[in-house]
Design brief:
This protein is an alpha/beta fold. The chain is built from 15 helices and nine strands. One of its GO terms (molecular function) is UDP-xylosyltransferase activity.
Length: 389
Amino acid sequence: MSKVDCTGDDHRMSEGNLHFCRRPWILQMMEQCPLGFLRRRPTHNPDQFPLAISPQSSLISQRPMSIFSLITIIILLFLILVIGAFLIWVSMPQSLSSSNKPVITKWHDYTLSQAASFVAKNGTVIVCAVSQPYLPFLNNWLISITRQKHQDKVLVIAEDYGTLDKVNERWPGHAVLIPPALDAQTTHKFGSKEFINFAARRPRHLLQILELGYNVMYNDVDMVWLADPFPYLLGIHDIYLTDDMAAVKPMNHSNDLLSPGKNGRTYMGSYMIFLRPTVGAKLVMSKWIKELQIQPWSKGNKSNYDQSAFNWALKKTTREVDLYLLPQAAFPPGRLFFKNKTWVKETKGKHVIIQNDYLTSSEKKIKRFREFGLWLVDDHFVESPLGKL
């Protein structure tokens, strides 16, 4: 039987010569293969393209690319699976957290060391201790400090979790709680055992910060800054103090510690203190802690208890510590500033920090601040880092 030319359009195939006209078996298998579409290419008429390679040679040249494409797809699928598994693994700690346990932010677990490091500027931290009922006073105090551009140094030692959460919610990183937490509803009652315990924690807090190597300025929050106090911290002394007596002193009075009173101790205020991390400053804080321990709270000995212990500590360490008395005109006690109008007029423009002391209720303190134009939160709360509370 002679072969039939199957390449021309004008030739017909008969059953007898069909086996001569079938396409190569390899191409038929490729068409049946599921991946055949990756390898199939249009057939060309060799008469129209004289330089085209034969189907056999074309198939051979394509075969490595087909294998390479398959491997590439497998690799891509493998990478997608790996990346997906990694992303799921990364998100697992959040999804597996207990539903009945609140999420603890990094500020909630903040240590005192971390907190001090976060706020310290030029080796200095401005510290206050606050329970929740005193948050309005904290805000008022912060406005006055912000006006002097020292707010970034402030560290609020929260005495309860409500204060801790509120401050760090509004001002992340500027509040820390040193356990144990106190009862926010009882610590604000002046003269109560809880109030005394609250105040007695102060020297421990200050000593801890000194041990970390920072300068510390402590303020009660019922104070207002009218000017920058740091230019008044002259020289290199262990502790800078304010006089709590209302008696008027000469404008150029000595910066040495005053002579003790009739009972043998001085009357320095514990509401505003600046300490350097020296042996002397740490000694006074340690003595203050001991004085609080040997004179336990009682109903007959509760007024101004922590300040009395502070002055006994000063008396017992006077020869070992370098003390500096700040000028009265700049740092007057409240009962001088708010009571002696003549003195206030004579010293106008010299006042730096005002203490709203010797009042036993928050309402009375706020009323007095308002009368003297020092209650700032009513109209200037936007100046506080905490905003409106």
